[in-house]
Design goal:
The complex is a heterodimer of chains A (116) and B (114). With 116 residues, chain A is mainly β. Chain A contains no helices and 12 strands. In chain A, a hairpin with a 2-residue loop joins β7 and β8. By secondary structure, chain B is mainly beta. Chain B is built from no helices and 11 strands. In chain B, strands 2, 4, 5, 6, 9, 10 and 11 form a 7-stranded mixed β-sheet that branches. Chain B has a 4-stranded antiparallel β-sheet with strand order 1-3-8-7, with no helix packed on it. In chain B, 35% of the residues are buried. Classes of the chains: A mainly beta (116), B mainly beta (114).
Chain lengths: 116, 114
């Protein structure tokens, strides 16, 4: 079974600086999707960014980008120019693209604190 | 467009009571699912459905029942609540996993079992 590991329970960064959240995963599949979700105190799950494993180019969404290393099974999230509104729990998630019905496998999350 | 609607938002039960968590989506999504989120944990899949009349178990199905009589609704039933079922429950739906598709989440139900 696939597993997702987020080794940083909590991270802290100064406003306007850059922070990188780590995620590693274990799978025997070659085709899959990876996601980063943000969960603010409102509890809402918000998709931040998505990466298809077959794409070599790293996904980017405005201030958010990923470093996808398929051979190392690593999928880190970089947040540039951190803002107070970025404070939240961040979850890394894996989805096997061959089925999808099994749902997403989530990591345990990283609590991101933004220092003003 | 309401998206995914979960009710109630909060619920307190006594051990042994039964209840149904409601989930409805108005996006004509075939795939619907239920997750639970425990402190210090990511979300874990309870049950899912790929269409009306079709349901299957996820990672943590024990103690929960589901049915899918319509495309729009996917209720989650707790037949005899236990303290171990204290958690936040999320319903989610999607059309599929093709490029740019995503999972739409409801706002969650916080359940406490005393």
């Amino acid at each position: 079974a696939q597993t997702v590991t987020q080794s940083q329970p909590e991270m802290s960064v100064q406003e306007a600086e850059t922070v990188t959240l780590s995620c590693t995963y274990d799978t025997s599949e070659s085709d899959y999707y990876l996601f980063w979700y943000k969960q603010p105190p409102s509890r809402q799950m918000i998709l931040v960014i998505r990466q298809e494993a077959y794409k070599q180019q790293n996904a980017t969404e405005n201030r958010f980008s990923v470093n996808f290393q398929k051979a190392a099974k690593s999928f880190s999230l970089k947040i540039s120019d951190s803002q107070l509104g970025d404070a939240a729990m961040y979850f890394c998630a894996y989805l096997y693209s061959g089925g999808g019905a099994d749902g997403l496998t989530f990591g345990k999350g990283t609590h991101l604190i933004i220092q003003p | 467009n309401a998206g995914v609607t979960q009710t109630p938002k909060f619920q307190v039960l006594k051990t042994g009571q039964s209840m149904t968590l409601q989930c409805a989506q108005d996006m004509n999504h075939e795939y619907m699912s239920w997750y639970r989120q425990d402190p210090g944990m990511g979300l874990r899949l309870i049950h899912y459905s790929v269409g009306a009349g079709i349901t299957d178990q996820g990672e943590v199905p024990n103690g929960y029942n589901v049915s899918r009589s319509t495309t729009e609704d996917f209720p989650l039933r707790l037949l005899s609540a236990a303290p171990s079922q204290t958690s936040v429950y999320f319903c989610a739906s999607t059309t599929g996993w093709a490029s740019n598709e995503k999972l739409f989440f409801g706002s969650g139900t916080q359940l406490s079992v005393l």
